[in-house]
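cache lookup: miss for this entity combination. No prior model stored, computing from scratch. Input as submitted by user K.M.:
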Amino acid sequence: MSFQGGSSPSPVSPIDEPSAAKQFLQTEVYDLGAQPGLRSLPPGSERDFLTLTWGPIIYQTIYSPESDDLLPIFLHALAREIRKALPRCLPGTAQQHDMLVHTYSSRLFSSQKMFQQASEGAVRSAFHNFKVALMLPAIELPVRLRVCLVIDSWVLGILAATLEHAEFKGEAPQYGLCPVKMVEENFPDLYQESTDVKLAQLVSLFPDLSQDTLLDVLVSSAGSVEATATIISEQLAAAPIKKRAVSRPSVQTSLISHITTPGDRTPEPKRRPTKKGQTLHLFSPDDVAAHTPCTIIHNFLPPEQANALLLELLDESQHFSRYKFQVFDKTVESPHSASVYVSTPEEHRQHTSVYTYGGTYRSNVRQITPHMRNVSTKVQRIVNDEVQKRIRNVYPGGKKLRFQSPKEWIPNAAFVNCYDGPAESVGYHTDELTYLGPKAIIGSLSLGVEREFRVRRIVPPDEEDTSSPPSNSSADVPTAGSGGDPTRKQKPQKAPQTRADVQGQISIHLPHNSLLVMHAEMQEEWKHAITPAQTISPHPLSGNRRINVTYRWYRDSLHPQYTPRCQCGQHAILRCVQRKKETRGRYMWTCYAGFAPGKQTCNFFQWAEFDDDGEPFWERKPIEDDAPTLANFADAT
DNA sequence: TGCCAACTTAGGTTATGCAG
DNA sequence: CTGCATAACCTAAGTTGGCA
């Protein structure tokens, strides 16, 4: 067996010794973690296997007592030969070879039910399906996904003969002479289809089944239409529909101890989404754009820059604090910590004494850090690009939304959040619009541990079981393909769609170094949350922590010197009506003091009016002196 | 006199899936 | 079928001036 390292010429750092082994490590192991599709897989053994290790994928097609005995010998021999072949095929230092040995891990598919006596063609097709089910974008496949091996009676027969021969002659067996059967396939076909398209295909195949059921099986088949169709056909042929089809046939064997992840022994609890308010997990950027008012960009920054920013902010996060507020009689504390960042000392002063947050002055305001400033330039460029794309491709008539600003988006303030450990979270909320104005756009950069960002559409309570016409009331928000309500069959009787059914719940996975753009319609029409996680995959630099920088554009026209005050002297805050169907989408200024610990609300209420570009109509024109403004992060020094 | 404008999220309750 | 574990759902209460 021979190995050719990745064919792509990888840039070699001048500091390190350039060698084939180094190059192989770089292109086939380390860099895999940076591949867009791979990083966006759900955390767990599957992703670790794909991103942290290399080695062949093996299908076993022979099952007998003898083969059971021979199989471990074969796997051991294979690992041994690979180890021996490394220095021969890939020049490099001993250390580099050692690293390659330790990241080697084969994977064995050994489902007797599925592969017994399978032909090479059947294995090739199973391998193909496996790759398709990973839902990788069309990247060049890592070496382990380019070939697979088959262990059949022929392979094991020759191994047995070799062993016998060696025993007879009293010599060590010559494993190097044993053949391996390789089924090769470089690229799967392009399968980038959205969940909607897949669902539509399945509906056409199984018109009698509900979309819910189909979606269920599709999700449990990791998004593979073929696998879903197979499972359902088998089920239908066999018996009355039973849930949960074929259990996953894969077993990961590792011949040489390799990177062990703490969560290894429980290979993802594989929880099935519950039917009600089912959570739709989205991984690919296309799906995110199609189902939510967000755009996600994986691997946003060069890896070094992302790491540098992460380290800088981890250091900063020691000084973060937890937001306290009042709900009913209790003072509660947000289950994560945060801080606000602004550009200059003058702004710092304003933010602690002029701007208010949640009904009180912010005590925790910090000045922007060097890396945050560098990054903001790129955030600004990409966010503006994405906004333009969305206007062109998604919004009606290719025009910006009503109240959305036509101006360039310029980040001049940022909230930085820290979620330390899987339990830290934030409940469903919308961001305060007071200084951002209507149809605000936010650029949110995730660093460190990957967490789930959940979004759900806001549905006024009285809209829920009126079998409303499919056209959404707020015609202004065409979330592309809002295929959100698959269950539209309802009896006039007591089977009302619950609010949760209508609202749905969508999970966007936010890996390290990804930028999520929350588009203009997000805050008015959707709520978002970071849900507590069952398990997380620790990040090499941040451990259990996730750092999140949300770049915002504070509008000059909403400087606190203009915004209304309520009777109690507090700054009123700007919100959008969400619950009342009739006034849905209107903006209002209200007193927020009721939420500040130790303060009482004065119940100030006033409708807020804006022009089509989201500029406020102030009753009194602001005093002529030029109001203080916040500096673009990128400009300030 | 009563209704109305509208808003918080923790935590108890319920639905679901699965093992025995 | 039962019981358990987990995920998701849904409720709570107070404020004030204006108007019917």
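stored under new cache key. Chain A has 17 helices and 24 strands.
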